[in-house]
Specification:
Structural class of chain A: alpha+beta
Strand content of chain B: over 45%
CATH architecture of chain A: Sandwich
Protein name (chain B): Sporulation protein YqfD
CATH class of the largest domain in chain B: Alpha Beta
Mean pLDDT of chain B: 86
Order of helices and strands of chain A: HHEEEEEE
Order of helices and strands of chain B: HEHEEHEHHEHHEEEEEEEEEEEEEEHEEE
Oligomer: heterodimer
Structural class of chain B: alpha+beta
Shape of chain B: elongated
Strand order of the largest sheet of chain A: 1-2-6-5-4-3
Organism (chain A): Geobacillus proteiniphilus
Strand content of chain A: over 45%
Helix content of chain A: 10-25%
Strand order of the largest sheet of chain B: 11-9-15-21-20
CATH topology of the largest domain in chain B: Alpha-Beta Plaits
Number of domains of chain B: 5
Distance between the termini of chain B: 104 Å
Low-confidence stretches of chain A: none
Protein name (chain A): Sporulation protein YqfC
Number of helices of chain B: 8
Low-confidence stretches of chain B: none
Transmembrane segments (chain B): 90-110
CATH topology of chain A: Immunoglobulin-like
Keywords (chain B): Membrane, Transmembrane, Transmembrane helix
Amino acid sequence: MVKKWRQQMKRWMAEQLELPADIMMDLPRITMVGHIHIYIENHRGLLAFSDKELRLLLRNGQLVVRGEQFVIKTILPEEILLEGKISQVVYIDE
Amino acid sequence: MKNEWVDTLAGSVRVKARGKGIERLINACVRQGIAVWNVKKHSADTATFFIKLSDVKRLRHVARQSECKLSFVGRTGLPFFWRRAWRNSGFWLGLLLFIAIVFLLSNIVWKIEIKGAAPETEHQIARELKRMGVERGAFQFLLDDPETLQKKLTERVPDITWVGVEWKGTSLHFRVVEKEIPEPKKPIPPRHLVAKKEAVIADLFVEEGQPLVSVNDYVQKGQLLVSGIIGAEGRTKFVPASGKVFGETWYKSTVVLPLETTFHVLTGKFTERHYVGIGRLLIPVWGWKKPVFAHTIVETEKRPFRFWKWDLPLYYERITIREAEEVKRRYTWEEAFAEAKEIARRELRAKLPEEAAIRGEKVLHQAKENGKVRVELHYEVIENIAVPQPIVQGD
């Protein structure tokens, strides 16, 4: 109850104060260059990786990237740069 | 993203992971601050990725707590390159040695070829060259340059008129032209003999032709002395006039000689310095002694080093510092006059042909003027004044 209320409060603040939502609400920021690069900030770790699928843990939920010929160009504690042919980016809420 | 250049310089390792939980391993690495890049999955349970060489130890630590088996499959970067280079040091040493030997051999005289000379002259030239240090096995850069060799050879070997010196790779070619005995005279076309300059005839010696002057005649320059047209009128014949006509001629010369002169004379003492130069930079190789000479004359000589058949931008330079001595010469008035006359006579002698004789000398004027003497002399000379002049025959 308190958690939900806090979440709503943050959303309200982000809207009212025009603060970036990813910082306020700890959401991932995803940047894509066409379908060949995807850059995800604010993830919580690697769940699964193959050359066709990347599954990342988020603060609440998971992010699934599907495609072909995946290569993780760089991985840092909160950032990841993926290269390949990306066909889908899917959010899975818990 | 990190600059990959830095990784290349520092050295990086390609790791192959096999087993379950590769994702967990990568997560653990990332959390430990190990930079991971180029992660590729090859099958369900194998993946490869790159880490920094300096992170290998920490990776081992992390891997111990995972279920993966690691192996290193590739190494790139400078540290590995050096290690490989060191392992191949024998090869590099050999290559270096090879270059050094080629360099050394390229700078040696391997062949001296003398062409166009009679055996006798060839032997003489070879001996002369040996005296100058030019022989098989000598270093090229220690020798004189071709122009100097050429000059010295023509000076020292009397039988050659001209010698061409040329480097062809490591061999030195000499092309010699010997002095030849003059060929038998060709028939001379008809000619007169005329006076070279104004003179009083002292003696006549006519081999062929009609003499037109006699002893004690005064002749002008260009005047006909011996005619090439002989025979009575109407039956004339053209002949090449020949012979000698000695005439008394006059020369005037002025000599100015200072009483006091200072000049530098080499004492024979010298020090040599050897350098290897590149561009304008000179690296001393041998000879550091500072000469204690008061006056010096410095000579420099430059010779390029060679490799194979090319001149390198590297060159050898020899600087010879010779000690000079300042010598002061001082004449009294009488000595100066005598010396001036002597100089005048020497100069005249050098100008005159060999068969000419100086018959008389007269001082026209001699003066002392601020530290100098000035002498004007008049000479009477007996010389051959006849010069040929071809007869132009009308058709």
